[in-house]
Design brief:
By secondary structure, the protein is mostly helical. It contains 11 helices and 2 strands; from the N terminus they run ααβαααααβαααα. Its EC number is 2.4.99.28.
């Protein structure tokens, strides 16, 4: 009796491969659709910021969560955040922040590519994380929607969000949003809370030197805010005060 021939597996494998390809295509399609919906949400949110002040940002909610978990020391402070309208912010504060953080703010379209290139060069020289290069618009985009994680993907999303903000909002509105939401120390957010905490005045009453001192804190507010009158802070404050007269603000501010 002749031996039975084995059934060839050629008819099974192509079917399995086709199912795997179809499965991957479906998941990829769903991921792309989810990504598109997320970007549409970000665009709609950016447009709404023309008229609405965000109650909180992703950065603030993350910081609050860390405080509740005991991962940040508030040193007995309360949560201080009081957004104010444009007219309640002194122009000294606007000029100081631009002079300290982004002197090309009114010239670029959301990203300072020369600063980004310089940051990449520093990274290539041995730094272990993506450094610097962020404009005021990028910092606002990051604070509004993103985590503190540093990665190329997050940096790409930050740039896209910055483009959305620039496409939907006037420059002065972006600056006002930034001033109302940025961190000025553990549990201290916005120019009004910072002015009252450090100087006992409102944001409309800040003078040039006070505004410059607040602006100097911004890169590391939790550390620099602990010693706002240190020798380093005094030197940097003088530098920013000298730069401020060169900053021209559009008028009127929205």
């Amino acid at each position: 009796m002749p031996l039975a021939q084995p059934v060839p597996a050629t008819n099974v494998r192509p079917g399995l491969v086709r199912r795997l390809i179809l499965f991957c295509k479906r998941w990829l399609g769903m991921l792309l659709l989810a990504g598109l919906c997320l970007q549409l949400y970000f665009m709609a949110h950016s447009l709404a910021l023309r008229w609405l002040e965000p109650g909180s940002t992703a950065f603030q909610r993350s910081a609050l969560w860390h405080i509740l978990q005991g991962r940040q020391d508030t040193q007995g402070r309360h949560w201080l955040h009081q957004p104010v309208p444009s007219g309640a912010i002194n122009d000294h504060a606007r000029k100081a922040v631009i002079a300290a953080e982004d002197n090309l703010f009114f010239q670029h379209s959301g990203a300072d590519w020369r600063a980004i290139e310089q940051a990449w060069r520093r990274n290539a020289q041995g730094q272990s994380r993506l450094l610097g290069g962020s404009t005021i618009t990028q910092q606002l985009a990051k604070n509004l929607h993103l985590s503190g994680q540093r990665s190329l993907l997050r940096k790409g999303q930050e740039l896209l969000l910055s483009w959305m903000l620039e496409a939907t909002l006037p420059k002065q509105r972006i600056l006002n949003l930034y001033l109302n939401q940025v961190e000025w120390g553990t549990g201290i957010y916005g120019i009004e809370a910072a002015a009252k905490h450090y100087f006992g005045v409102s944001a409309s009453q800040l003078n040039a030197a006070q505004s410059a001192r607040l602006a100097v804190m911004l890169p590391q507010p939790r550390r620099l805010g602990l010693a706002p009158h240190s020798p380093y802070m005094n030197r940097r404050t003088q530098v920013i005060v000298q730069r401020m007269p060169a900053i021209a603000l559009p008028s009127p501010a929205p």
